[in-house]
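In line with agreed milestones, the collection of sequences with tokenised folds has grown. A representative record is reproduced below.
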Amino acid sequence: MKVLLVMGLGWLGISDFGIAGWQNDPRLAEFSGLTTSLSEQPAERQRMWAINDGGQPPELFALSLSGEILGTVAVAGVSNIDWEDIDAFRLEGKRYLAIADVGDNAAVRDSVQIHVVREPGAPEGSVRPSWTLSVRYPDGARDSEGIAVDAESGWIYLVDKRIVPASLYRLRLRPEPASLAPDGSQLAEHVGSFSGIPEPHGDGDANDFVRYANQPTALDLSCNGLEMALLTYAAIYRYRRAPDESWATALARKPLRDALPPITQAEALSYSRRCRYLYIGSEKPPVPILKLDLR
């Protein structure tokens, strides 16, 4: 299987994709989120963090760049209701991970949560959230599988999954208490819609990949904050903006599209440390950790 996939990337006309490694460990059987460590320590520079989907223990998985599990860190005091994405960021000289408990397949959750923890220095032990954001949408409950943190501007971005066209929302990373509802939740703001993603089609069968291939499953921002990458089951879409341009304007333009090789349930996405690559992970091991060369 591994040899056939490696040989097939060029044959399929997607030679910009390589295989960074393989995720074979059953402990990460619902691999749904991925981010690259921002540590400058030599032992931590080649580390990524991953999470399992909902219903699994609330823990972080430290991965090597080739997909090997280096250790796990428990997140104390929270549950994994439906964890879907994770993003690393720096704020006031400290490193954090934002864990997005934002999945809502049936659109029934009154609010969803984003837990912010300090990025662990060692791949073991436990952490507690430094703060938790409770989020509501202005137009009713939404299922989401992707978030991206822009700490410089103070925003967290979310993308919904099941509405066509897919929409981008934002919320404050550190909201003012006066801006919160009485229950402590924050109302997300609609930013714009993602253009260039084909509308679903098919016979509606739950196993019809063609119908669900274009649903967004992960989101990330480039190192300079000027490119937003959106992952679907079938492709990566990259939207670029000028420094003085809004994301609403940038999303209205045709994106760059990179078709994925045939992998099962691509749901994890992260830029590399210097944004020379995009790493892509998928559920149901054994699966490859793909690497898209952006140079």
Remarks:
- Residues 148 and 220 are 5 Å apart (CA to CA).
- The radius of gyration is 18 Å.
- The longest helix spans residues 2-11.
